[in-house]
Amino acid sequence: SFFQVTPDSLIYKTSLSYKPSPPGNVVIVRTNPAVVPIECHYPRKSNVSGNAVRPTWAPFRSTVSAEERLTFSLRLMTDDWSTERLSNGFQLGESLHLQADVASGGHVPLRLFVDDCVATLSPHRNSSPRYALIELSGCLVDGRSEDTTSAFISPRLRQDMLQFTVDAFKFAGDDRNLIYITCHLKVSPADQAPDPLNKACSFNKASSLWAPVEGTGDICSCCETGN
Question: What is the CATH classification number for the domain harbouring 199?
Answer without folding.
Answer: 2.60.40.4100
